[in-house]
């Protein structure tokens, strides 16, 4: 399992937020196990992300959103000691891309934040959404809301920005920790998933487009 591989490289005590778990015995848990088994099997990642026959697309997306949240949490949690107010006073991806925070609650307008502040707001915001039964229902027979995929697009778009920041500003640290292969695989899996279901606007992908071009993406 990718999460286990990452834990072997990263300090699991530094996970940015507690892991969101799937309840055993639920359809979501079974889908999660199916997705992880495919990952472990060494199948091509393009094939791994495809919707299994007969399964609900919203359940499949929900499982992956939660799993990516957990894994990116683990990656950033370990990187966070290198990502400080001093080293990263702006949440950015190089000189060309700057990401401002807006959540319609505390920050009603796009607001310039340091990378650590942005990450903190982002993880709190995602955690609130995935724990909200009205958006991510876990009870059998309870339908997903009409705006579910729209919400997931917003979550995944913002999680993509974590990859952008980590790759562009902290890749030396990833290499020094010997975690390059694991982070690359996690990003590749994430990239193929969002492309398979058109969940992130292609313009958002531009900061890392050279990487993905090498994969035929």
TrEMBL record:
Q: Which residues are recorded as binding Zn(2+)?
A: 83, 88, 165, 170
GO terms, molecular function: kinase activity
According to the record, the signal peptide region is none
| This protein's UniProt keywords | Kinase, Metal-binding, Transferase, Zinc
SUPFAM superfamilies documented for this protein: Mob1/phocein
Under the heading InterPro entries, the entry gives: MOB_kinase_act_fam, MOB_kinase_act_sf
Q: Does the keyword Transferase apply?
A: yes
The protein's name: MOB3C kinase
Give the source species: Nothoprocta pentlandii
Gene (name only): Mob3c
């Amino acid at each position: 399992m990718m999460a286990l591989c990452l834990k072997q490289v990263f300090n699991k005590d530094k996970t940015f937020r507690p892991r969101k778990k799937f309840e055993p015995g639920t359809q979501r848990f079974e889908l999660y196990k199916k997705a992880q088994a495919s990952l472990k099997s060494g199948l091509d990642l393009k094939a791994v992300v495809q919707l299994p026959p007969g399964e609900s697309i919203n359940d499949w997306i929900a499982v992956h959103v939660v799993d990516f949240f957990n894994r990116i949490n683990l990656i950033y949690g370990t990187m966070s000691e290198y990502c400080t107010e001093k080293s990263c006073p702006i949440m950015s991806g190089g000189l060309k891309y700057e990401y401002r925070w807006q959540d319609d609650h505390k920050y009603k307008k796009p607001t310039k934040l340091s990378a650590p502040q942005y990450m903190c707001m982002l993880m709190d915001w995602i955690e609130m959404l995935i724990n909200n039964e009205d958006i991510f229902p876990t009870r059998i027979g309870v339908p997903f809301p009409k705006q579910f995929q729209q919400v997931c697009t917003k979550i995944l778009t913002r999680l993509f920005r974590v990859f952008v920041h980590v790759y562009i500003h902290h890749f030396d640290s990833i290499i020094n920790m010997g975690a390059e292969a694991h982070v690359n695989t996690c990003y590749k899996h994430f990239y193929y998933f969002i492309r398979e279901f058109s969940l992130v606007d292609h313009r958002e992908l531009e900061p890392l487009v050279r990487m993905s071009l090498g994969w035929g993406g």
